[in-house]
Amino acid sequence: MTQRADSNHWRLHAGLLTLWFVVSFGVVFFARDLQFGVADWPVGFWFAAQGSVLIFIGIVAVYAWRANRREDPEPGFDQLSYAAHRRSLHRRFAWYVVSLLVFLLVLAFAEHFGMSKVWVAGIFLSATLILYAVIGVYGRTADASEYYVAGRRIPAVYNGMATAAVWMSAASFISLAGGLYLQGFSGNGGQPGGLAYVLGWTGGFCLVALLVAPYLRSMKLYTVPDYFAVRFGGRWPRMIAALAAILCSFTYVVAQIYGVGLITSRLTGVHFEIGILLGLGGVLVCSFLGGMRAVTWTQVTQYVVIILAFLIPVSWLAYKQVGNPLAPLAYGQQLQKIAEMERRLMESPAEKQVVEEYARRARSYEEKLKDVDRSLQAERQELRRQLRALGDMKMEDERAIALRRALSVLPKDVNAARESWTRAMAEDWARARPLGGMPAHTMPFAGDPVGSVEQQEIFDTSRLNFLALMFCLMVGTAGLPHLLTRYYTTPTVAEARSSVAWSLFFIALLYLSAPALAVLVKYEVMAHLVGQPFDSLPAWVAQWARDPSLLTASDVNGDGILQFAELNMGADLVMLATPEIGGLPYVVSVLVAAGGLAAALSTADGLLLTIGNAMAHDMYFEGDDDKAQAMRRVMWSKFALLVVALIAAYAAAQRPAGILYLVSASFSLAGAAFVPAMVLGIFWKRTTRAGAVSGMLTGLGVTIYYMAINLPVVRNGLGLTGDGLWWGIQPVSAGVFGVSAGLLATLLVSTVTRPEPVSDRQFART
Question: Which CATH architecture has domain 2-73+87-330+457-521+584-762?
């Protein structure tokens, strides 16, 4: 009977994983062939944006339901006490949601009757931060079980909300819709992305549910490195896992703190660096004082803020444009209109003038770069000559002011000039294409599979990069320590399975709406902003244009009319500016900013906690379970967390690469370092300590090497020419090589070494 049940168990696994592969990689591979329309939707686009995500939810839900039905109750688990605990939490949660909605309505009425924007923003920001602080203080603890895993008593639905909050980082909330706005379905050959993020960040939860989370929870551990220590024994598996956890989590947390600074400075008007410090205080109150217990309930409250902040603007835009507030169901109507407007813009003489001007500027930089020293001197001399020609003009003369400004921003030396002009040339060449370099929104992949040989190569490379990025995001999801640790907090293994299903459901509420928001904002820009005179543009354009990294709008062709190619919106702007684009009250703008802040804070909380625990629990104490050491382990974890937070804040203040890139890189690192050894260790008894160590080091080493060797500064320093890409795959997807190398190394070394004796509880049931 047991053998038959096991057989059914593995058939269920195989069937669900096959379905997962078909609706993700299979549908994407044939996406260009699925462009026929059904009910306003290009079928390929619908599957990538919605259909596959819905099937992923079904896969995880079916697996949890089937697996939990055949599982016996865990010994010692008090079902009645747990049910009463859950009912009490439901009542508290309902009161919180109602109170938050009433608070929003009160602020909206106050704004309507004359309360200043400064007061509206200040009150809302202060109220949310005070709430998070109160939870942090109330949840403070020095108990190891409470600090590391919240006492293992978080119900599945609330752990799902907390997981969704920690998952919906600054990248998801701030940058995802903007990335979809800029990249459409799949981006272009040099910038893969688009719907790969939606598919990768949701499809990965199928792997978490079927391959990882229940098995780790059954071992009753504190951290992910604990698994490697218990499963493989010895010191090195834990140490390498801890170092890998620190590396990928630090890369991730820098992006979150950058988002915290961006939003806090926007909300309060303070400088970016000050915004980082203000937001960091909110992070530390919860993670430092209360550990996982405080962080969990803070994340539950933050999830409500996040989802309201995202759904209200997108629902309003959908209602405004198509008369239906259910954006994921309605925005297909706008896809056809956008496709038609894209065709008109590509044929517009004014748009062509803008493209030609960008090409002229790019060629000008090319000429300058042929002799940087001579060009720099000539440009400096020409500016000085024009200033002298103005004679005794008044200091406040606009022409004189412009010349002095141009002279002051001129590169100081040859190296600075070469770097600046190379970057400007690349930007101008990128803009010197139809639609300002943006791809057609619903078209999968650049190039043409039936065009010239060059176009076919571009198509194959674009599709390969999309698949590689999606693979890295999916596998990385199954390896991220701060995510997996969340499933340690449930009271039973069955609750862990259910929690994964709830997590994906709550995450999908945002991920199904993000493609809709990108489409609705693009329609709003194309239909109501493009073609307007520069002197009659809405106030939000000038306001956001103060930061050129977020928005620029310049009259490139000199006709006084805004062309689409003259507007450059950064990915981080689209979501933050949506309330103003849609004409919503300022309180909604504040809610959106607070939602972005909550998304960044919730993820930063989990990441900093993971790093601190890895440094103290796994590296310093090496998982010592001596109860006399419990308080010391917690205090050292708090100290490590504080130090790392300050270092991450300094790194974020340097304004590193975009949020989306940093987050994507951390997924490659996590997938390569953890997943091959972890999954093989769960399902294959023959996996050895040497195999796991070899796999982790190989996967991590290959990934880091590929990322590093493709950095311009590294290539220039080593005198390397060319792009250094393997099969044209971009560095952000380095994990595709790291995971493959790590898997191969683990298999080969495990085959030729002797496995260590370990308990059967460390393996999946066979």
Answer: Up-down Bundle (1.20)
